[in-house]
Amino acid sequence: MADTKQEKDSMQGQETSNPLSNTDFELGRKPKILVVEDEADVRQLLVLHLRRQNFDVMDVGTGNEAIQVLQNSTFDLVLFDWMLPDASGIELTKWLRRQSKIEKTPVLFVTAKAEADDIVMGLEAGADDYITKPFDHMILLARVRAQLRRSQWTDPQSDPDAIRYHDLVIFPKKHEVRLSDEKLELTKSEFLLLLAMLTNAGRVLTRKQLAEFIVGESVNVVGRAVDTHVFTLRKKLEKYSDMIETIRGIGYRIRLEAEVNA
What we know:
Layout: H1 5-13, E1 32-36, H2 40-52, E2 56-60, H3 63-72, E3 77-80, H4 89-97, E4 107-111, H5 116-124, E5 129-132, H6 137-150, E6 163-165, E7 168-171, E8 176-179, E9 182-184, H7 188-198, E10 205-206, H8 207-215, H9 223-237, E11 244-247, E12 251-254
Parallel strand pairs: 1-2, 1-3, 3-4, 4-5
Antiparallel strand pairs: 6-7, 7-8, 8-9, 10-12, 11-12
């Protein structure tokens, strides 16, 4: 919580330097990073360095604020300070690892606690990396990039297999779907249904064809089961629920993008 004057002077001395160019993330969706730091000037410098490298950054100053944000949004990386006014980075990391939707989010500690025991405690609590203050911002940015690579962050503009429908993106290899940069939690059947329909956008698929796409030709699945999966999928697609058109007595199709008002 209390950062040293040396730390702040060190960071301010580097503020005007921008030796790295973020060519990896210049196009497409920016990696989303949450900064949790109670010292306003330190937090502002962290945000400044990250935004200069084309990251999409949100910042908060307390543990409670961090929990509220993480309950409603997903991030590609979280930076935790250890000492916060209402919680510790250790407690927040343990809490995050218990949340099924975000448990795999990379966590990077940025803290003045530099003893070996502290570093071990932070890593054993679930942090993926640990940087002590004062630090070189070039090293911080390099470690941020390393964590994004290890977590297989994917830019839809650089993934040739990604399928896009307005701001809905499906990544077949990762079995992942994102809507407005937020990860959708779909069941395997819902994912396969969406993949089948998006790869055949504009074309009518029968219930039998969709059922075979989910479970294979050797398994008999009644059309009503497909209807149930489509119903739940529509609810999760929110503003794009109407992209799935029901063809009465036959099956379903994805409307072409020009037919849908995004």
